[in-house]
Each structure stands twice: as structure tokens, then as C-alpha cells.
Design brief:
By secondary structure, the protein is mostly helical. The protein has 15 helices and three strands. Helix 8 packs across helix 11. The chain binds iron/sulfur cluster.
């Protein structure tokens, strides 16, 4: 299976700019952005972010509003706060150098097992398996042919990693899972088809109930997540009067106050007596009003 994957690596490689990059900071930024966002949607924000904040020190020194501003188009803005916190911890506690050990990386804000292993592998060549939703599907289908718990999936991912070129192997697993072993798999074109346990053994799709395999996101339209995103998007252009925001979100009156409070608790937004802004936004309070038609969706 490793040999088949290795010989197909070039053919199945996606054209993603961070794959050829060896800068740990650039890789960390890409992996945080990739946590809940599809790779093709990450490309432009990733470039934009690194143009503005090319080093961990630059990110640590920037106001939080800048990091949230650069997060536009990605959603799940809480990740921007975590990345900012991580940059500050790295500067304060690690002399500005991103740690290479997965156990240490996992202690950083917002860094879970996937991101820790991905940074360790892609930035430092640490021999550890990178397990995301896509790889979880490949392991459950191609190797186990039964649903996998998280620990077993990670163990299999680790066992598969070769001694040499471990980062390339992990990237190929991600490429394979994202393009072939999708929720509706494209087995006839898959380079692992000859070895795949599920394809040979048949039965119910083992990926469906495996740990770490996404069961699909909840409906976005009308969700709290959508409204939180709209409030943050409104504030990206500058501080706003609270009464203006209330007027804009008059139809969401009940939810607006509650979700504004969650944004404050999450460290993304701060409010004064009569105004609201992204945390650390240095711009003057604005004196102009907004209408519902002006609000980004
Ligand atoms: S043969 Fe099909 S099920 Fe097996 S790994 Fe490839 S795409 Fe997935």
C-alpha cells in the first residue's frame, strides 16, 4: 500500500502553495486555517495573511483586530483568536520558535491532535501520522474495513508512516482522502484499489461511523454561526455604535445580544457603553450609521 501510494504521489498531488513551504509559521497558519475550511478556500486567505504577518513575531505584535480582519472568507473566527494566542505564547515561552514535538504543540491554544501532528510532520519531518476526516475514511476503508475509534485510527495512521519521506506520505494520504476516498468514493480511479480491504471484502461503509470522520456540518443558513459571522464581518470595516447594530439586527433582537456576548467571551469583540469593535481595533469610533443593506452576509 505504501509503495502504491508513493508511486501515485505526483499524480494525485493537489496544487496547494503550503505543501512546498518549509517555514513552520507558514505551515502552522495553513493548518489552523484548514481545520474547518476546504483547502481551495484557504489558498487566498493564507497568502494574504502571510503577506501581512510573515512571522510569528509579527502576528504576536499585531492587534487582534488585524488577525480577525485577515480571517475574512474563512469562517469559524474563533480560530483567528486561537492563532493569535498561539503566536503570543510561542514568542513568550518558546523564544519565537514553534515547537516540533506534537505533545508540546498540543499545549498551544486551539491546537488539537490533527494540527499538532500536521505541523510536526510537514514542518519538522517528525514521523507521526496525520489524521483528519479524509485520512480517517481511508484508514477505515482501505485497511480496517470496520469503524475505527480515534485511538485505533491514530495507531494505524502512525504505523503506516514510512521511515523516509514521512511528510510526503502524510500529504499523499490527505490528497487521496480528499480526492478519491470521499464520502462517495471514486474507487475505480484510486491508486489503492488493489489493496483496499473494503473494496475486496464488501459490506457496510466502515467510514460512516468512524471516529474523526465528519458526519456533515449542521445547516448554516439561519444558524447562530452564520449570525456570529455576520456581526464579525460588519465590524471588520471598523467600530460601530451599538444602537446602529441593534437597528441592523432588529429582526434578530433576541439572538443578537446573546451572540454578541459569546463573541466577547471568545475574545473576538469588545464593547464599550455605546460602541462595539473587534478586540484591539485602533481605529477611531465612527460616527456614521449603517443600514441593513450595508451589512455583509
Ligand atoms: S478503493 Fe475506494 S474505498 Fe478503497 S481507499 Fe480507494 S477510494 Fe477509498
Amino acid at each position: 500500500m505504501q509503495r502504491s501510494l508513493r508511486s501515485a504521489a505526483r499524480r494525485i498531488a493537489r496544487d496547494l502553495p503550503w505543501v512546498a513551504n518549509r517555514d513552520p509559521w507558514a505551515i502552522l497558519v495553513s493548518e489552523v486555517m484548514l481545520q474547518q475550511t476546504q483547502a481551495r478556500r484557504v489558498v487566498e486567505p493564507w497568502r494574504r495573511f502571510l503577506d501581512e504577518l510573515p512571522t510569528v513575531a509579527a502576528c504576536a505584535a499585531a492587534p487582534r483586530s488585524v488577525i480577525i480582519g485577515l480571517w475574512g472568507g474563512l469562517g469559524y473566527n474563533r480560530r483567528a483568536g486561537y492563532l493569535h494566542d498561539t503566536a503570543r505564547v510561542v514568542v513568550r515561552d518558546f523564544d519565537g520558535r514553534i515547537p516540533r514535538e506534537p505533545d508540546v504543540l498540543r499545549t498551544l491554544p486551539g491546537i488539537g491532535a490533527y494540527t499538532a501532528n500536521a505541523v510536526a510532520s510537514f514542518a519538522f519531518g517528525v514521523r507521526v501520522g496525520v489524521l483528519d476526516t479524509n485520512v480517517g475514511r481511508v484508514l477505515a476503508r482501505a485497511i480496517a474495513n470496520h469503524p475505527l475509534g480515534r485511538a485505533e485510527a491514530q495507531r494505524l495512521a502512525d504505523q503506516l508512516v514510512p521511515r523516509r519521506d514521512s511528510a510526503k506520505h502524510n500529504q499523499s494520504m490527505l490528497d487521496l482522502g480528499a480526492q478519491f476516498c470521499t464520502s462517495t468514493p471514486r474507487c475505480s480511479a484510486c491508486p489503492l484499489a488493489d489493496h483496499c480491504a473494503w473494496r475486496r471484502g464488501g459490506g457496510v461503509d466502515p467510514a460512516r461511523h468512524s471516529a474523526g470522520v465528519s458526519q456533515g456540518q449542521s445547516v448554516f443558513e439561519g444558524s447562530d454561526r452564520q449570525l456570529r459571522g455576520r456581526i464579525v464581518a460588519t465590524l471588520r470595516s471598523g467600530p460601530r455604535r451599538l444602537e446602529d447594530l441593534h437597528r441592523v439586527y432588529v429582526d434578530e433582537e433576541g439572538r443578537f445580544e446573546r451572540l454578541l456576548s459569546t463573541l466577547v467571551v471568545d475574545g473576538l469583540v469588545e464593547r464599550g457603553d455605546d460602541f462595539v469593535r473587534l478586540v484591539g481595533d485602533p481605529r477611531e469610533r465612527v460616527g456614521w450609521t449603517i443600514s441593513p443593506g450595508n451589512v455583509p452576509t
